[in-house]
Design brief:
Elements lengths: L35 H10 L7 H8 L4 E6 L6 H17 L2 E2 L2 E2 L4 E2 L8 E7 H6 L4 H12 L3 E2 L7 H4 L8 E4 L6 H10 L3 H14 L13 H10 L11 E5 L3 H12 L6 E4 L10 E6 L6 E6 L1 E7 L13 H5 L3 H20 E11 L8 H10 L6 E3 L12 E2 L6 E2 L5 E2 L2 H11 L27 E3 L1 H4 L4 E8 L21 H9 L11 E2 L18 H6 L6 H13 L12 H6 L56 E2 L5 H9 L11 E3 L9 E4 L2 H9 L7 E4 L1 E6 L10 E3 L4 H4 L8 E4 L2 H9 E2 L15 H6 L3 E7 L12 E7 L4 E3 L3 H12 L6 E2 L30 H13 L19 H6 L3 H20 L1
Parallel strand pairs: 7-8, 7-12, 8-9, 12-13, 27-29, 28-32
Antiparallel strand pairs: 1-5, 1-6, 2-3, 4-5, 9-24, 10-11, 11-20, 13-19, 14-19, 15-18, 16-17, 18-19, 21-22, 22-23, 23-25, 25-26, 29-30, 30-31
The structure holds S-adenosylmethionine.
GO biological process, one term: tRNA methylation
Family: Belongs to the class I-like SAM-binding methyltransferase superfamily. RsmB/NOP family.
Pfam family, one: Pre-PUA_NSUN2
Length: 923
């Protein structure tokens, strides 16, 4: 068995975060589970009562159970959950391992709707012990299609305490690899499927609204339906999740992970959360016809799942035992406080921030919470929510109100006063990292009820350890700079600030209000909490220059060419000071026609009449901080001809918004892929297009271009990712309906079954319809039905009708996953294109060809970036192990990543299949 290399910090904590190094898996049982300082510190703190202590340590020395979660917002995930109960649990119950019958998975009692499960058999056994093979296959395939997320149990708690309602605006500041972000986006979409279906149904049955009624209701029922319908965006969620990570590679892991969930309401950014830039909203007029005022996005909910020492993960990351040292926590304190303070600044009044770590150290937990609240003006401004009655079945302990701090040398200090006395007597040796704010006795505005913080320990319910605190913003805050004495006068406030603050209050009774006025920000100052530069700050250095560096650079830029400089982005206050400076913060590449390029890049010093040619991954352009330029997000004009032809071909309802289609190239030309985003995402991307904010992902792939066999056929096929959003709005002329399991089975097993000649007769109930439907992409609606051959859930799948045959536009992995899920079959696929596949003609000379390689002038490369980075840096599979990730610092959500690999190949498969098909058609 291989060895997994060391990860000490969690996601950006010391030793963590990087990715990129090949590392190996360590056999849990081989590692000695002892660390004198670790044990001494937590024993002296008395984290648990004396009577529990043995259980506490015994649990921490045991390998972590296996856990996973079903995707809550997808209707399809529920039948998958049922399958676990009906098929796999009975199977697992009969397995014997080490002479004992295996315990089957159990639903986690505190997780709603039995959507989260845990089993005591460790992952390593499930992966390798042959009797688990079919269960493992199920986990892997359902993870890859987004129905399951492999996630550590305690990591599921913070999102549950955020109280997210669909429609809210949510920010996840430290999101990679994305296990919690996945939960958050599901919550943002909560109930959407049902809402949209209700709206569509209502429109169909309402005469005068839409044609093709599929039911009859009484007047009364119609009235009732009308009231139940959410017409705001035709049932679609209007909410948004911005998921951010400071580490570029990890931000791409996050994209890879989140892409499985196909949300148009997700934006991924790549910034240092301690100085997360203010996000502009489209400005609005102050008075009709008068001046406009800038507006900035504020959030209903923010998750600050910060980089931490990760010592609560020692059941999974065995190297915690070897590497734990007190300096890890001390070095992270300052970054953690800054992230939490920045979160509170960006929060709406009335909103919630959830702060969490997987560390047990009070320096990273209670001390951070108390210091951040103090910096925000105390409990009158920011409160800790009492969550003792939330998730009643979750066993937890209260936060610590009193603690001591261990210094780098392992000495434990009861108070800051004692540290100061020692400093005066014997010098600073070993004490440099300590600060007053790490101690409970630090002078604070007022006492903070830290007992409302939540601690979860491993022995309570056989999990890892976690710390969670829910903070509530009562009133707009003015943060005190770091280390400023508490008696200091608040920062001077201008009349304009007061006016804006009042304007920023949420409208009464409207918790979902998206837009508040500008936030009040004090830019981060020099680090006075702890000496030295924190791990995360170091990690982000390349990403975000420090404030002073920015100031120096600003002067330099003024003298030289400022056009393409990448600076630390401004928070709102700074933006106001230099309102005219916006245009000099362009970071996208290529620049708009005529833009001046960075003076430090001699090869690009002349202004370009048009964008630079796009480059493949191997030839990527990098900015001064050695990070690839992101392709811009450009929205397509609704009158653009490709878009019009799409609406026409698919008979798309005019109610489906036509201004949310986007491409990723500087020309804004639909060349290969058209993405769809929500309205709010569009407003944000548009309003911040040249702000320098590093948006690295947004949009669901909706249409992909291909060559076709006839001029009447639309060159844009619907992509399976986008289908759930679009399907209800596609006109009947491009819809094929299917009711029988046996029919779908044929389409899953057989690729390119023939429909010409007598071929259609073999396709049963859909035979005639697919024979007659015109060539091109169609929507296959699998409807619910009765009896053994009926489906219990509806589904939609993209179908392609070509000259002679038919094909489900699904990657082979998805076909196999569906065969396994729906039919419990591992049947080999039959490729009919091969029956007649004599590759004499070159595919490229064939009239019908998928556009796989774009012409060199324009390129959409976001997808390639995400997958390439994931592949290069993370998806390092160990030989002989299925879906094993061996990257350090992944946080607790890594399993979903490993199992979600390979989108790019899956898509290639479809393209290749189709290409073969085209050759088949020609023969
Ligand atoms: C504990 S992990 C987050 C785990 C994640 N929330 C999840 O559930 O999958 C912490 C993350 O913070 C990121 N990070 C470290 N310093 C940061 C900073 N200053 N700003 C934003 N992200 C940071 C790391 O790259 C890492 O991915």
């Amino acid at each position: 068995m291989g060895k997994r290399g060391g990860k000490r910090g969690r996601g950006g904590g010391r030793g963590g975060g990087g990715g990129g190094q090949r590392s190996v898996r360590t056999d849990y049982s081989e590692v000695p589970k002892a660390n004198a300082q670790y044990e001494q510190y937590y024993n002296e703190l008395g984290l648990v009562e004396e009577a529990e202590r043995e259980d506490f340590w015994t649990a921490l020395r045991r390998e972590l159970p296996n856990s996973f979660r079903f995707t809550g917002s997808k209707g399809q995930a529920l039948p998958v959950q049922q399958l676990l109960k009906d098929r796999y649990i009975p199977e697992i119950t009969s397995i014997e391992h080490n002479g004992e019958l295996v315990n089957p998975p159990n639903a986690i009692p505190w997780f709603p709707d039995q959507l989260a499960w845990q089993m005591t058999t460790p992952k390593s056994v499930v992966r390798k012990f042959p009797p688990f093979a079919s269960f493992q296959k199920f986990l892997v395939s359902e993870t890859s299609v987004g129905n399951i997320s492999r996630q550590e149990v305690v990591s599921m708690i913070p999102p549950l305490l955020m109280d997210i309602k669909p429609g809210m605006t949510v920010l996840d500041l430290c999101a990679a690899p994305g296990s919690k972000a996945a939960q958050l986006i599901e919550m943002v979409h909560g109930g959407e499927e049902a809402r949209t279906r209700r709206v569509v149904r209502k429109m169909r049955i309402d005469p005068g609204r839409e044609v093709s009624p599929d039911g009859r209701l009484t007047e009364e029922q119609m009235e009732e339906e009308e009231q139940l319908c959410d017409w705001s965006d035709h049932g679609r969620t209007t909410g948004l999740l911005i998921a951010n990570d400071a580490d570029y590679k990890r931000a791409h892991m996050l994209i890879h992970q989140m892409k499985r969930l196909n949300s148009p309401n997700l934006i991924v950014t790549n910034h240092d959360a301690t100085m997360y830039p203010s996000i502009k909203l489209p400005s609005e007029p102050i008075q009709e016809g008068g001046e406009t005022r800038n507006r900035y996005l504020k959030f209903d909910r923010i998750l600050a799942d910060v980089p931490c020492s990760g010592d609560g993960t020692c059941r999974k990351n065995v190297n915690v035992w070897k590497d734990w040292n007190p300096g890890n926590a001390l070095g992270l304190f300052s970054t953690q406080v800054r992230i939490l303070v920045r979160a509170l600044q960006m929060l709406k009044v009335g909103g919630r921030v959830v702060y969490s770590t997987c560390s047990m150290n009070p320096v990273e937990n209670e001390a951070v919470v108390a210091t951040a609240i103090d910096r925000c003006g105390g409990m009158s401004k920011v409160d800790i929510v009492d969550c003792s009655s939330a998730l009643p079945k979750l066993k937890r302990r209260q936060g610590l109100s009193d603690w001591r701090v261990m210094d780098k040398q392992g000495r434990i200090w009861p108070s800051w006063q004692a540290v100061e006395q020692e400093k005066a007597k014997n010098g600073e040796e070993g004490l440099g990292r300590l600060s007053e704010f790490m101690f409970p006795s630090a002078k604070r505005e007022e006492a903070v009820p830290l007992d409302r913080c939540m601690r979860v320990y491993g022995h309570l319910q056989d999990t890892g350890a976690f710390f969670i605190t829910v903070l509530h913003k009562k009133i707009e805050i003015k943060t005190r700079p770091e280390a400023e004495p508490k008696t200091a006068e608040p920062e001077p406030t201008s009349i304009m600030d007061i006016v804006k603050e009042i304007e920023a209050q949420p409208a009464d009774g409207d918790p979902l209000q998206k837009v508040e006025a500008a936030d009040k920000i004090v830019p981060p100052r020099a680090n006075n909490y702890a000496e030295g530069v924190s791990a995360a700050a170091r990690q982000n250095k390349a990403n975000a220059p420090t404030a002073s560096a920015t100031a120096i650079k600003r002067e330099h830029d003024a003298e030289t060419d400022a056009a393409m400089s990448t600076k630390r982005l401004k928070t709102r206050e700074e933006v106001e000071v230099s309102a005219q400076g916006d245009e000099d913060r362009q970071v996208h590449w290529p620049p708009p026609p005529g833009a001046q390029l960075d003076a430090s890049r001699p090869e690009t010093q002349t202004s370009l009449p048009s964008p630079a040619p796009p480059l493949g991954n191997s030839q990527k352009q990098f900015d001064k901080n050695k990070q690839p330029y992101e392709e811009p997000f450009k929205y397509i004009d609704p009158n653009q001809e490709d878009l019009q032809s799409i609406y026409e071909f698919y008979d798309l309802s005019s109610r489906f918004p036509n201004d949310r289609f986007m491409v990723r190239n500087a020309m804004g030309h639909p060349s290969k892929t058209i993405y769809y985003t929500s309205a709010l995402a569009r407003s944000i991307l548009t309003a911040n297009a040249s702000s320098g904010i590093k948006f690295v992902h947004c949009g669901v792939k909706m249409f992909v271009k291909q060559d076709v066999q006839s001029a009447e056929v639309c060159r844009w096929r619907i992509q399976s990712e986008g289908l759930p959003v679009l399907e209800a709005w596609v006109g009947e002329k491009r819809v094929v309906r299917l009711w029988r399991r046996s029919t779908l089975r044929i389409l899953l097993v057989e690729m390119f079954p023939k429909v010409d000649g007598e071929g259609w007769k073999g396709l049963g109930e859909i035979g005639q319809r697919v024979r007659d439907v015109g060539m091109g992409c169609c929507v296959l609606r699998v409807e619910k039905g009765e009896g053994e051959d009926g489906f219990s859930e509806r589904m939609v799948l993209p179908l392609w009708r070509s000259l002679h045959s038919l094909n489900l536009m699904l990657p082979k992995e998805d076909r196999k996953a569906m065969l396994l899920r729906l039919y419990n079959e591992d049947t080999p696929l039959m490729d009919h294109s091969k029956d007649r596949f004599h590759n004499k003609s070159s595919p490229s000379s064939h009239p019908f060809r998928y556009v796989k390689d774009e012409p060199d002038d324009i390129k959409d490369d976001e997808e390639d970036d995400a997958d390439a980075v994931v592949k290069d840096e993370i998806m390092v599979k160990e030989e002989g192990e299925e879906g094993t990730v061996a990257a350090p610092g992944l946080g607790e959500g890594v399993e979903a990543m490993e199992d979600g690999a390979g989108d790019e190949e899956r898509e290639d498969d479809v393209l290749l299949d189709s290409l073969k098909k085209e050759v088949e058609d020609a023969v």
